[in-house]
Design a protein that fits this description.
By secondary structure, the chain is an alpha/beta fold. It contains 30 helices and 26 strands. The protein is elongated, with a radius of gyration of 50 Å. Bound molecules: 2-acetamido-2-deoxy-beta-D-glucopyranose (3 copies). Its main location: membrane.
Length: 946
């Protein structure tokens, strides 16, 4: 029966045990889980509802400000079956919102100042060649051009050809045919959605000519989509004025500029040319034109600047000067780029907010995983499992697989539900791309949670931090990171660095999905040009690295998962094993013995026994051997170092129960913690069946049971489930397991009334205590440590518990600490009394009583007046009796055993009864309690003295 625990439970057994436990744990958490899975479903549904609502409301607004539509097929009920939208059905206001696959063309125009602003003679300009101010009233002011250059005669003859089209007006019957004229407009260019605004408004178009003939105004039909406008074309004479230098031109332009100062007259010219060094062989010109039109407005991106025709005009003038008036450089038309339809108010919630929403949804898992990991650490459950034989490997793999399964289900719910209700975000993109992305991400997230869990040990902190992380990264992603992604001038390396944070790589991936879903979806081949490929590579590489670091930190720095390993633990195979082995142990130990000079004989005897044992080649039949185990806490803030354990040497044989007694803080728990691997000893070591606790703890755990001082239990699991889990860890299976669990439950009185099947959260303190004891004993461990197993138990349960421990003792060595002397006497074969970190005595309870007791306690109660009589009586019995207690008639004496016989005492009392009234009397042997107090006081007195 006991042999089943000999073997180390296999990897599969441990994994199986943990997996089943987690499954039950999750089943209990079903409400939380349902809430978790509901989250993506609610988010998806809300988005859809919101989208429908917004779209419906926007439709009415958009009717006016969108491309026009008409019904082209009405059914019998008068409902429209088919509508057609497009520029041909639009008003002028609607046109800019239509899609324009083939934009119309129009002749390039010149920018002409309005008639009231055109340059005239004023008193602030020195030039008399400008027209008189009176032309402004009639609107007949010419379009003035200023000229300069190095060779005036050349320049003037060049300018004579400017705007000379020499064309007959009869030939103009549509917009295209106007392109041979030099046309201009004084309209603002405004926002051009479709056509040059000059043709859409009702202001006239100017036909610029060196000289205007009378009655030269004519109309041209302009077809704009379905509308035809009669466009007025007015002749406008041009005036070319020579200036001596370009600085004079600048001055004139500057002075005529409208600057908001109403005192000044505005004098605008059309443009100015500087012919520089142009001659017959060389055409070199610089042009001044008014660009204020463009810069005026913040919406300037869409505005035209009417310059190209100016360039063409001066080039033609030069060409005609060189080659004659029948040569011309044609400038046929300008037109807009083809463009898609635009609607003013369009809200696509998912393409705008999808990345943010789903970042939140998926990140939501992170705090959940983190909390679960930290919970087991905070409640010390991880250590508890480890102490009962759960290796780090199975723990990691099962936890990982389990979180993966959970995350996978969660994301699957999200994607399946999202596509089911028709969200383009999920529908449009290739499912295999989505699968790979989410698969890689959830792996990274789990690894990241493992890494984070190493540095936290409080569930509350983790919960708050985790949710702040979720909220914060979503907001930073949307407010900052997305802008950087969209800003193409932001260096790519910067993005890569940001995407190292898992939250940003998630955001980036979701952003790309959202972006692609508005076009034609993401396929594998798109990965090369969007950010997704990059993100996937970053995540995969990071996953490996994070996992390694997480494992490393878990072993080295993790708070609360047991003994921390040396930072270079993976090199231990190359280092020398610790020198303290059984083959050559003596030197070291002899030296340390000197430091404990005042040792009691029984303690030194035990120490010698340990030393003898360790010299033997095989001492593994001794379940526990402690070899000068020491624990020292370095002093802080200038305090001296504190010794918790000052050299414990102890050898326990099989079937022995050793009781550690001692006042609080004497070092009992510290000693046990070292032996169960919760603390590393400062020096010395212990051997469990020959295995060193410093190096072979993992192997020791399989044969060890621990009942810690504070119950380490899962609130949501039942007592039976606890026992099943730990039983499986101890390699019990099938009927053996069921039987052992049953026995355990009965043994600790948790069987009746179905207590064993209630969740531990509902247990009373005493029930938890009994369960802890049962856990420590399940699977017949070879060594068992119990830290105050019976605290808080009622007497009945306590007696039951003692029976259990007594039975277990037959196969195991047990070390227990207790404050109950009764318990120590009943259970323990040997006792050790601890004071201030060292053992004061070791021995069987009766042996100790004999050694430290050595006297009877005689108590007698009489009336006050008879006190003297009693004292005389005692003095007669034993001259060296010692009064230890005296209060209102009750007196207590210590009578040395070698001076009195019990029969004498009885006789003396009988005689005394005849002389005075005795209310009560008693004679008692020394109790263990007396011994305990005596030893403790003695040691403390010694410590105070020294
Ligand atoms: C100016 O141009 C004319 C031709 O228009 C040319 O005959 C004359 O030599 C030029 N003068 C100078 C100084 O280059
Ligand atoms: C340029 O055009 C703007 C707006 O049409 C006008 O206010 C301004 O006076 C013009 N500047 C010159 C130098 O003609
Ligand atoms: C055009 O004129 C500018 C300014 O005077 C001068 O720097 C440049 O060399 C000239 N170009 C040619 C080709 O003559």
């Amino acid at each position: 029966m006991a042999n089943s625990s000999q073997e180390t439970s296999s990897f599969m057994t441990q994994a199986n045990a943990l997996f089943r436990k987690n499954l039950i744990f999750q089943k209990r958490n079903i409400k939380t889980n349902i809430r978790l899975v509901m989250f993506p479903i609610i988010v998806c549904s809300l988005t859809v509802i919101l989208q429908i609502f917004v779209t419906k409301n926007l439709k009415s607004i958009n009717k006016l400000e969108s491309c026009g539509c008409v019904c082209i097929n009405e059914n019998a009920d008068g409902n429209c079956e088919k509508t057609e939208c497009g520029i041909q059905h639009s008003t002028l206001e609607q046109m800019p919102y239509c899609s324009i696959p083939s934009p119309p063309r129009w002749p390039a125009l010149l920018q002409i100042p309005s008639p009231e602003f055109r340059a005239v003679r004023t008193n602030f300009t020195p030039f008399t060649d400008l027209p008189d101010e009176s032309c402004r009233n009639s609107g007949a002011c010419p379009a003035t051009l200023l000229l300069t250059g190095l060779n005036q005669s050349f320049g003037i003859s060049l300018a004579a050809n400017l705007f000379a089209s020499g064309l007959d007006r009869k030939s103009f019957d549509n917009l295209d045919s106007l392109s041979n004229l030099y046309l201009g407009s004084d309209t603002s260019t405004g926002t051009t959605g479709f056509l040059e605004p000059a043709f859409i408004g009702n202001s006239p178009i100017y036909n610029i000519q060196p000289q205007c003939a009378p009655n030269s105004t004519f109309f041209v039909p302009v077809q704009i989509a379905s509308v035809t406008i009669q466009q007025e074309v007015q002749c406008l004479g041009s005036l070319h004025l020579w200036r001596q230098s370009s600085s004079m031109i600048k001055d004139e332009i500057f002075k005529g500029y409208q600057d908001g100062n109403s005192e000044r007259k505005i004098n605008e010219i059309v443009a100015a040319f500087d012919f520089l060094n142009s001659d017959k062989n060389n055409f070199n010109v610089s042009i001044w034109y008014n660009s204020t039109v463009k810069n005026d407005d913040e919406d300037s991106d869409n505005k035209l600047v009417r310059v190209p025709r100016l360039v063409n005009a001066v080039s033609n003038a030069y060409l005609q000067l060189m080659k004659g008036t029948d040569v011309r450089m044609l400038f046929d038309f300008v037109k807009e780029m083809p463009k898609p339809a635009k609607s003013v108010f369009s809200v696509d919630i998912l393409s705008d907010l999808g990345a943010l929403l789903f970042t939140w949804v998926i990140l939501q898992l992170f705090p959940v995983i983190l909390e679960s990991l930290v919970y087991e650490k905070q409640q010390k459950l991880r250590i508890m499992m480890k102490m009962h034989g759960l290796g780090d490997g199975p723990y990691w793999i099962i936890s990982y697989a389990y979180f993966f399964f959970m995350s996978f289900t969660y994301v699957l719910c999200l994607v399946v539900f999202g596509s089911a209700i028709g969200l383009k975000f999920f529908r449009m993109n290739d499912f295999s791309v989505q699968f790979v992305f989410y698969f890689v991400y959830i792996n990274l997230q789990i690894a990241f949670a493992f890494l984070m869990a190493t540095s936290f040990s409080n569930v509350k902190t983790v919960t708050v931090m985790g949710h702040m992380y979720v909220l914060g990264s979503g907001i930073i992603g949307a407010a900052l990171f997305q802008k950087l992604v969209q800003d193409h001038s932001f260096p790519r390396l910067g993005l890569v660095l940001l995407e190292i944070f898992p939250c940003f790589s998630l955001y980036r991936g979701l952003y790309e999905f959202g972006y692609s879903s508005t076009t034609d979806g993401m396929l594998w081949k798109d990965l090369r040009r969007n950010g997704m490929g990059e993100v996937l590579i970053i995540m995969v590489v990071e996953w490996f690295i994070v996992l390694l670091i997480a494992y490393y930190f878990d072993q080295v720095v993790s708070i609360g998962s047991g003994v921390r390993k040396h930072p270079l633990f993976f090199l231990t195979n190359f280092q020398k094993k610790p020198s303290l082995t059984s083959s050559q142990p003596s030197l070291h130990r002899r030296g340390s013995r000197v430091s404990v000079p005042m040792e009691k004989p029984d303690v030194s005897l035990e120490r010698e026994k340990v030393e003898q044992l360790l010299l033997e080649p095989d001492f593994s039949y001794y379940p526990i051997i402690c070899d000068n185990l020491k624990k020292m806490y370095p002093g802080k803030d200038g305090n001296p170092d504190k010794f918790a354990v000052r050299g414990l040497s102890l050898a326990l044989s099989r079937g022995e129960c050793f009781g550690m007694l001692g006042p609080n803080g004497a070092g009992k728990t510290s000693s046990i913690n070292m032996m169960i691997g919760l603390m590393t000893p400062t020096s010395g070591t212990a051997f469990v069946h020959g295995l060193d606790i410093r190096t072979d703890m993992e192997k020791i755990y399989t044969n060890m049971g621990v009942c810690p001082q504070h119950d380490l239990l899962w609130e949501t699991l039942t007592g039976r489930e606890h026992l099943l889990f730990y039983g499986r860890l101890k390699n019990l299976q099938g009927t053996a397991l069921a039987q052992a669990v049953e026995e355990s439950l009965k043994g600790v009185n948790l069987f009746n009334g179905g207590v064993g099947d209630k969740q531990v959260g509902k247990y009373s303190g005493g029930m938890k205590r009994r369960l802890s004891v049962a856990i420590s004993l399940i699977g017949y461990p070879k060594v068992v440590y119990m830290d105050e197993p019976s605290t808080g138990l009622d007497p009945a349960s306590r007696y039951l518990l003692w029976d259990v421990v007594k039975r277990a003792k037959q196969n195991s060595a047990i070390i227990l600490t207790t404050h109950s002397m009764e318990e120590a006497e009943v259970l323990c074969d040997r006792l050790g009394i601890y004071v201030d970190g060292s053992l004061q005595c070791i021995g069987h309870p009766t042996e100790l009583k004999a050694r430290y007791g050595g006297s009877y306690v005689f108590t007698m109660t009489t009336s006050l007046s008879q006190e003297k009589e009693v004292e005389n009586l005692v003095r007669q019995l034993s001259p060296s009796a010692n009064k230890i207690y005296h209060i209102s008639g009750t007196q207590k004496f210590e009578l040395p055993k070698n001076e009195v016989r019990i029969a004498d005492v009885l006789q003396a009392v009988e005689i005394a009864k005849t002389r005075f009234t005795i209310y009560a009397w008693g004679l008692a042997d020394t109790t263990l309690e007396d011994v305990f107090i005596k030893v403790a006081e003695g040691a403390q007195a010694y410590n105070v003295l020294s």
